[in-house]
Structure formats: structure tokens, C-alpha cells
Amino acid sequence: MDSFVETRQHLYDIYNDRLGMSFYLGNHFEGHREVVEKMRNSDLENVRLSVIDGDKRSCSIFSSEDFSVILGIIFYDN
Question: Helices 8-18 and 32-41 meet at what angle, rounded to 10?
């Protein structure tokens, strides 16, 4: 698992921009739109992004720095 902390605004800008790319809107990136919405409405200053690689599917988890608040998860096929 890889994990790092960035400002919420920085991660929001990156993932919001990716919504405009049609290949991110399909089932291959389940949860993307929901994560962007939660980041936009969150009052967290920083967000932890954790990436878990699986054999068939992987995910990115967006949370508070201490994992006490989960903003959302993006699932994608490997």
C-alpha cells in the first residue's frame, strides 16, 4: 500500500479535471464522481490518498490524515 497526504484542494483539482476525460467516467473507475463530490464538500484541509493494488482490482482511498473520515474510494480494474 502506498499512502501520502496532499492538500484537499490539490487532490480535488486533479481528480475533478479527470472527470472531463471520458475514459474515467466508465465502470473502470467506479466511485470517481462520488469522491470528487465529497472532496468538494469536505472541510478537511488535507486528504490522505492510499492506493491498494490487488491482483484483479485495485483502489484509491481518500480519507482524513488519521483515517477517521473516509471521503470515498475509487475502484479500478488492473
Answer: 140
Cβ 32 vs Cβ 18: under 8 Å: yes
Write the pLDDT tens digit of every residue in 10-35: 999 999 988 876 555 555 688 999 99
Average model confidence (pLDDT) across the chain? 91
Q: Is the dihedral of CA 42, 60, 49, 11 positive or negative?
A: negative
Q: Give dist(CA 65, CA 74) in Å, integer.
A: 18
Residue in the structure block whose three cell numbers are 479500478: 76
CA gap 46, 56 in Å, rounded: 30
Domain boundaries, the chain: 2-77
Asked if 50 and 63 touch (Cβ cutoff 8 Å), the reply is yes
